[in-house]
């Protein structure tokens, strides 16, 4: 098992990460869709370093009612990351056991490590009427699209490969090998941008936040009018500067 810091209180808020997702059959997927409107599910994808976490940090501050899924990964924790808050850190054998038990909504290999979305906590939040965001890479997003076609999918794109590389380097969290893998993967991912419902440029950070905010607001308003509930409030705006790194700090 990887060496990691427990998030303590945060971990408790995430419920049963090991709950099983419905078996992958057409009938089961139909049942999931009707029980859990996937139009409450927003998938934010895009290359590593494009700014997904940074944009989400701003949006989660505006919309405390929205829940950001905590992924499982075999990647070792970075300094400051904690188990249950940033990720559920696990060794590959435990990860693959969870894959075999059907406990992930989706999973994929990325830059030498496996990443997956524990299905149980998502089902629980969707059933409770929460809007849920997944911050995942492109292959996982594709799997979610197949299983839950009405999930709203947003691809965040960088102004250029040079800018992307500069952002990864400025962040200072990756080795040269990791940077090279991420850049190679990014080239491939960018060719798939058109598969997504929305392609948003993250050049000016506040503009990108506003653009993703508009997508999220539409989802929240649609869900509210469908449920007959009062419109969910839009909190005060949070302005971030270009170097405002997001944590994956999450609450229940
Ligand atoms: N497919 C998939 N499933 C997940 N559950 C998941 N969680 C995170 N990712 C993506 C997000 C990033 O694109 C990469 C790498 O993440 P990492 O935290 O190592 O690096 P950042 O560049 O995002 O800081 O994995 C998932 N993908
Ligand atoms: N629009 C932007 N302009 C300048 N820097 C940005 C912008 N968006 C994000 N960044 C910076 O780029 C780096 C990578 O952002 P991050 O949110 O970690 O990306 P991701 O979550 O997609 O891997 C961080 O240092 C962040 O502060």
TrEMBL record:
Tell me the first and last residues of the signal peptide.
Answer: none
- NCBIfam families with a match to the protein in the record: guanyl_kin
Disordered: region residues: 223-252
Pathway(s) of this molecule: Purine metabolism
Which Pfam families does UniProt cross-reference here? Guanylate_kin (PF00625)
What function does this protein fulfil? Essential for recycling GMP and indirectly, cGMP.
Look at the named UniProt entry and state the broad enzyme category this protein falls under.
Answer: transferase
Gene Ontology molecular function: ATP binding; GMP kinase activity
Name under which the protein is recorded: Guanylate kinase
